[in-house]
Amino acid sequence: MTVHGFGFPQGRIEVICGPMFSGKSEELIRRVRRAIIARQRVQVLKPAIDTRYSESHVVSHSDVRLHASCVATVRDLYAAIHPRTEVVGIDEAQFFDEELVAVCNSLANRGMRVIVAGLDMDYRGLPFAPMPRLLGVAEIVTKIQAVCMECGAPASFSQRIKGGDSTVELGSSERYEARCRRHFEPEEARQMELLRARAEVLRVPTTLDA
Ligand SMILES: [Zn+2]
């Protein structure tokens, strides 16, 4: 079935990447919603390990949500795609293995629009799993920034903070903040120093995490 202008869009890969709290899921949701409005057949998938908020939704930090299927592996993801699907959304792509690159290519070659969102770097500032190679094969790359929790500058890094601080923790012993290059500090001892210095300036527990 080929209908000019409508029906199958041209197959392509779009990658949305950036640090935590940069709005990647929100941007994925926005694009998928527009496809739904255009009456395209859409499927959204995410790795089963990401059970942060919901088993069956893609949820942004600002609580915008969209139905999603959880799949354990890239093979399961591939098997879950219906042949008539036109738009495939994949969230938290950094948790899938390198096989995701071949699968995205294959889906795009079949005429599907594949929109992939994920962290491009881990908390050490190193490229995260399949993301670097996905960026290499994508037609469209959107790298978005968050806001540095230290200085308010645009932030591209995800800082991991282990316990210690009096700020809100998301149900785990680890907490994350977006940081600019100047305030990103992968080394733990140095990080604790920075936190203590900031606690003295603020004197009040912050609850900026959302
Ligand atoms: Zn900063």
Describe the structure.
This protein is of the alpha/beta class. It has 2 domains: 12-144, Rossmann fold; 147-202, Wheat Germ Agglutinin (Isolectin 2), domain 1. The chain has 5 helices and 12 strands. Strand 9 and strand 10 (154-155) form a beta hairpin. The longest helix has 15 residues, at 188-202. It starts with 11 loop residues before the first strand and ends in an 8-residue tail after the last helix. The relative contact order is 0.18. Mean pLDDT is 84; it is low at 1-5 and 164-172. Zinc ion (ZN) binds next to loops.
Bound molecules: zinc ion
Compute the CA-based radius of gyration.
19 Å
CATH topology of the largest domain: Rossmann fold
Low-confidence stretches: 1-5, 164-172
The CATH superfamily of the largest domain turns out to be P-loop containing nucleotide triphosphate hydrolases
Overall geometry comes to elongated
Which whole number gives the mean pLDDT? 84
Biggest sheet character: 6 strands, parallel
- Written as H for each helix and E for each strand, in order along the chain, the element string is EHEEEEHEHEHEEEEEH
Q: How many runs of DSSP E, i.e. beta strands?
A: 12
Q: What count of helical segments does DSSP give?
A: 5
Widest sheet: strand ordering: 5-2-6-7-1-8
Q: What structural category arises from helix and sheet content?
A: alpha/beta
Q: N-to-C terminal Cα separation, in Å?
A: 45 Å
Structural domain tally: 2
CATH architecture of the largest domain: 3-Layer(aba) Sandwich
Helix content percent band: 25-40%
Fold blueprint:
Layout: E1 12-18, H1 24-37, E2 42-47, E3 57-59, E4 65-67, E5 69-71, H2 74-80, E6 87-90, H3 99-109, E7 113-119, H4 131-137, E8 140-143, E9 146-147, E10 154-155, E11 157-162, E12 174-179, H5 188-202
Parallel strand pairs: 1-7, 1-8, 2-5, 2-6, 6-7
Antiparallel strand pairs: 3-4, 9-10, 11-12
Helix pairs in contact: 3-4
The structure holds zinc ion.
